[in-house]
Design a protein that fits this description.
By secondary structure, the chain is an alpha/beta fold. The chain is 48% helix and 11% strand. The chain has 24 helices and 16 strands. Helix 4 runs antiparallel to helix 6, helix 4 crosses helix 22 and helix 5 runs antiparallel to helix 9. The chain starts with 12 loop residues before the first helix and ends in a 5-residue tail after the last helix. The structure holds Fe(4)-Ni(1)-S(4) cluster, oxidized and iron/sulfur cluster (SF4).
Length: 626
């Protein structure tokens, strides 16, 4: 069979080469399966199909020739809004449930129920404990851990009326949320309420459903996700700037290669410890390898990249490609964004897939379940399995294309403030003078509907050229890293103002702030900037973009950004076009509600123009040069 034209699928020559290898070796990839699914269902793409009960399933004819109401009488607006609401609920549930795992870990630390985890950043633990109003003078770190964990675990339910970190939002934003009735209570409550509202015959009005969707998203952005970030810093250390590398070429031909994929540092940090163990390294050598090599994929990769400098092998669409190199002994996964296909791809090579979470089993994978008491021992077991697997590697099938690309990571808000001398003043000055005209969070996934990494990289290049600072997370951050945008030398690609700032501080124009849950760092930073200027977040010259998003979590992030006052550009259309009401609200009506909207623009250059216009108008409104 003739090879497809891989150049259209990805900007990366290494991925092209591995797609050819996969093709030659008869391995099916995400791009093959996407093709096999085409044409995608038009009703579903527009959000016009409903499976919420078994009087249906129902669908609305978008051209007006067929049925305009489901069996229950729901019209296009209701069906689209309900579907969107459930999408947001699933996204919020995922990131916040990850946050809950961190809170439970901190509680176990506080109660002395785990020997495997501890507190690496006591100063941050103390700061966070004091921030929530607990007197720490007579508390030991363990007591602080217990008190803070208990208070934040209460955030997931509903009893307090609002989640703790709403207190971090600027007062104007809090007043707006209160007025709209969207101040987030716990994520558990908001998600349950969304499932309730979207049952047949409950909330049958698009605007009301969308407002609740916003509330759900806020309970994640200022609740579960923010807790995930803050407590990960407490337990595993707050990231500080450091250098590492990215690309599939971080895999090593002569070493036992272990990849971690998924989301939560609770698992990946344990492996990061285990691979440094001299005894295990000796075992690897005895098996004929020159050592143990650990690298990350996707968000848990971002977690250990930010904190430990562990190299990054690639992003979402490259997870199968990593296996196709033939050089990966083992991929350890926890949860989220792990394509079930990895098991099938691994079966074509010697690679083992190891699942670790009681919440995420994969048919055909090896399950080695981690908990707070056995994590260190299980991590060793996983490394030993990888070493054993190395013996069955077929060197003739190994092909690791490309070279590792250097990057800088570790830009937590604490690190940014530290680099600025402990205050936001220099950043504010740079924004006021126009040397930094604004800041944009370029975030989110990869999606085979978009040319791999094209959206992220082209948008970011265009933004920095316009003196707009980029903060990135998730798979977008990996894309920028692999494209060489995350080294100080990339300042050469920036406009004169941003370039000068980067050169003075020795930082890249594209700052890595972490994994997807770490978008909460961006929210927090925006709140601090808004407070410093005595304005609402919606008045800031900032924006967000998810050019290649695919996941429900990304939709939730986009919505909490908008509900927090941040203009957000999506490169992939969400399934809402079947309803004029919902679409109009998303791309214009929300401006009057939240002071920000979504825009949909697949072309990164045009997206940069939209963002530039937005930043221009926000600067002018603040009395600054455009
Ligand atoms: Ni949570 S959500 S593909 S791992 S950024 Fe990567 Fe990031 Fe999207 Fe998933
Ligand atoms: Fe059809 Fe209404 Fe049931 Fe949805 S809830 S499947 S529109 S009858």
């Amino acid at each position: 069979m003739a090879r497809p034209n891989y150049k259209e699928l990805t900007i990366r020559p290494e991925v092209e080469r591995l797609l050819e290898k996969a093709h030659d070796e008869g391995v099916e990839t995400v791009w093959d399966r996407k093709k096999a699914q085409e044409p995608h269902c038009g009703f579903c793409e527009l959000g016009l199909s409903c499976r919420n009960c078994v009087m249906g399933p129902c669908r609305i004819d978008p051209f007006g020739h067929g049925p305009q109401r489901g069996v229950c009488g729901a019209d296009a607006d209701v069906i689209v809004a309900r579907n969107f609401g459930r999408m947001i609920a699933a996204g919020a549930a995922s990131h916040s449930d990850h946050g809950r795992d961190l809170a439970e870990t901190l509680l176990a630390i506080g109660e002395g129920e785990t020997a495997d985890y501890g507190v690496r950043d006591e100063a941050k633990l103390k700061r966070l404990t004091e921030e929530v109003g607990i007197d720490t003078t007579s508390l030991t770190p363990k007591q602080m851990a217990k008190a803070l964990a208990e208070l934040l675990l209460d955030d997931f339910g509903c009893r307090k009326g609002q989640v703790t970190y709403v207190a971090r939002a600027p007062s104007k934003r809090k007043e707006l949320w209160a007025k709209l009735g969207v101040t987030p209570r716990g994520v558990d409550r908001e998600v349950v309420e969304m499932m309730h509202r979207t049952h047949m015959g409950v909330d049958n009005e698009a605007v009301s459903l969308l407002l609740h969707a916003a509330r759900v998203s806020l309970s994640d952005g200022w609740g579960g996700s923010m807790i995930a970030t803050e407590l990960s810093d407490v337990i595993f250390g707050t990231p500080t700037p450091r250098t590492s590398s990215a690309n599939l070429a971080v895999l090593k031909k002569d070493q036992v290669n272990i990849l971690v994929h998924g989301h939560n540092p609770i698992v990946s940090e344990m492996i990061a410890d285990a691979v440094r163990d001299p005894g295990l390294i000796a075992k690897a050598k005895a098996a004929g390898a020159s050592g143990l090599n650990l690298a990350g994929l996707c968000c848990t990769g971002n977690e250990i990249l930010m904190r430990q400098g562990v190299p990054m092998a690639g992003n979402h669409l490259m997870t199968e490609m990593a296996i196709v190199t033939g050089a990966v002994e083992l991929i350890m996964v926890d949860y989220q964004c792990i394509m079930p296909s990895l098991v099938q791809v691994a079966a074509c090579y010697h690679t083992k897939i190891v699942s670790t979470s009681p919440k995420a089993h994969f048919a055909g994978a090896t399950h080695i379940e981690f908990n707070l008491q056995n994590a260190k021992a299980k991590a060793r077991e996983v490394v030993e399995l990888a070493i054993e697997t190395f013996k069955s590697r077929n060197p003739d099938r190994v092909d690791i294309p490309g070279t590792p690309v250097e990057l800088m990571t570790g830009f937590s808000n604490e690190a940014v403030l530290g680099a600025l001398g402990g205050t936001l003043a220099p950043l504010l000055e740079a924004i006021k003078s126009g040397s930094i005209r604004g800041a944009v969070g370029v975030v989110g996934c990869g999606n085979p509907r978009v040319k791999h990494d094209h959206g992220h990289v082209e948008l970011t290049k265009a933004l920095i050229k316009k003196d707009i600072l980029v903060l990135d997370t998730g798979c977008a951050a990996v894309a920028h890293g692999m494209s060489g945008l995350k080294v100080p030398a990339a300042a050469e690609l920036a406009g004169p103002g941003l370039k000068a700032v980067c050169q003075a501080l020795g930082i890249p124009p594209v700052l890595h702030v972490g994994s997807c849950v770490d978008n909460s760092r961006i929210m927090h930073l925006c709140a601090l900037l808004a407070d410093a200027l005595s304005v609402d977040i919606s008045a800031l010259p900032v924006a967000a973009a998810a050019m290649e998003w695919y996941s429900e979590k990304a939709a939730t992030i986009g919505l909490y950004a908008v509900a927090s006052g941040i203009y957000t550009v999506l490169g992939v259309v969400p399934p809402i076009l079947g309803s004029k009401t919902v679409t109009n609200l998303a791309v214009s009506g929300l401006e009057d509600v939240f002071g920000a909207t979504f825009a949909v623009e697949p072309d990164p250059i045009k997206a940069a123009e939209l963002i530039d216009n937005r930043i221009r108008s926000k600067r002018l409104a603040l009395g600054l040069t455009p």
